[in-house]
């Protein structure tokens, strides 16, 4: 497994990371034993970066990772944790809190659930409009000084916020959606990160399975699968998006690879400072994604891919309108 350094903070991670969210119900039911086996397989394959959030399954995801890491060397995994989202007893989202006191509270619970003495990357999952980013980052910086956190990351932040955060403490990476269907970061956000020496961990590289080459229309009807409310999966949009997938499939077939592999490889080739996060929750999907590492794209391949899926060709926004309105990163794009 090749490695890269996230930003200028000296943190070395694998060239691909494993996003663990789907193992805790966001896409419908998942199998606990298969999830753990998938984490084990990822670590055995050389993946070191495990990404989670304390609100994934209301702590379920962190407990799952703790179980998977039991008996292994702590240094085998670079654990990235997002915090800030508030949940309710029926699984809904009820707000956001990134006050310094909340940061202290959230990290205490995460350390306990994960069973570790430090978190490698700690990041607010969104910008709290009621709290200056300087206050949130300052609180995490105190955790770095105390040894509870090693590096500070951001998630879904726009250029101005990224600059303000970096002025308080070095930022190792920005986690943000980036794929053939979601290229909004290219205008301002990615150049800002590169100017400041901040890496990018890209989630949604397969657009929540939409451009995996495997997605079926009935999948979004599974109870608990938030894609049932995602604009790109709705009637009138999904047909257009699946037509893009078929065009991409033709390009992949010419190279003898799968749609997922060529979509992941496209993200990876955008720069050594970009680490795709694979959302696999099964070993077979993980194996397929790992095959993207063997795919070398040349200029002709990239041109063919972008003809198949032109920039801004996606039908529908990446989140529903109320959620888009709360994304600091989207305010920068529009």
From TrEMBL:
It comes from the Bacteria. Gene3D superfamilies: NADP-dependent oxidoreductase domain. The keyword Oxidoreductase applies. It holds the Pfam family Aldo_ket_red. Residues 15-308 form the NADP-dependent oxidoreductase domain. GO terms for cellular component: cytoplasm. SUPFAM superfamilies: NAD(P)-linked oxidoreductase. InterPro entries: Aldo-Keto_reductase, NAD(P)_OxRdtase_dom_sf, NADP_OxRdtase_dom. Keywords: Oxidoreductase. GO terms for molecular function: oxidoreductase activity. PANTHER family: AFLATOXIN B1 ALDEHYDE REDUCTASE, ALDO-KETO REDUCTASE YAKC [NADP(+)]. This is Aryl-alcohol dehydrogenase-like predicted oxidoreductase. It comes from Chiayiivirga flava. The lineage of its organism: Bacteria, Pseudomonadati, Pseudomonadota, Gammaproteobacteria, Lysobacterales.
């Amino acid at each position: 497994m090749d490695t890269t350094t996230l930003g200028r903070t000296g943190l070395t991670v694998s060239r691909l990371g494993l996003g663990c969210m789907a193992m805790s119900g966001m896409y419908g039911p998942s199998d606990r034993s298969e999830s753990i086996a998938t984490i084990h397989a990822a670590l055995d394959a050389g993946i070191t970066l495990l990404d989670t959030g304390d609100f994934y399954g209301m702590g379920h995801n962190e407990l799952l990772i703790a179980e998977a890491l039991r008996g292994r060397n702590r240094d085998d995994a670079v654990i990235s944790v997002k915090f800030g989202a508030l949940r309710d007893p029926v699984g809904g989202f009820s707000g956001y809190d990134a006050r310094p006191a909340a940061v202290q509270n959230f990290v205490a619970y995460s350390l306990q659930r994960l069973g570790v003495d430090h978190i490698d990357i700690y990041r607010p999952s969104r910008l709290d409009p009621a709290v200056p980013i300087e206050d949130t980052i300052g609180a995490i910086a105190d955790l770095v000084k105390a040894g509870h956190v090693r590096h500070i990351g951001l998630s879904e932040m726009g250029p101005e916020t990224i600059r303000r955060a970096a002025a308080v403490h070095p930022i190792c990476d920005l986690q943000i959606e980036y794929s053939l269907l979601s290229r909004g970061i290219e205008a301002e956000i990615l150049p800002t990160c590169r100017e400041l020496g901040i890496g990018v961990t890209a989630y949604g590289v397969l657009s929540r399975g939409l451009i995996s080459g495997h997605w079926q229309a009935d999948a979004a009807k599974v109870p608990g699968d938030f894609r049932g409310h995602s604009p790109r999966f709705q009637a009138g949009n999904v047909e257009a998006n699946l037509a893009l997938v078929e065009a991409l499939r033709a390009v992949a077939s010419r190279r003898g690879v799968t749609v997922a592999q060529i979509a992941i490889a496209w993200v990876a080739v955008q720069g050594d400072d970009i680490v795709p996060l694979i959302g696999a929750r099964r070993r077979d999907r993980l194996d397929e994604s790992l095959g993207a590492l063997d795919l070398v794209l040349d200029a002709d391949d990239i041109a063919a891919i972008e003809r198949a899926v032109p920039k801004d060709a996606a039908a529908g926004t990446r989140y529903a309108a109320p959620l888009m309105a709360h994304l600091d990163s989207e305010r920068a794009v529009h």
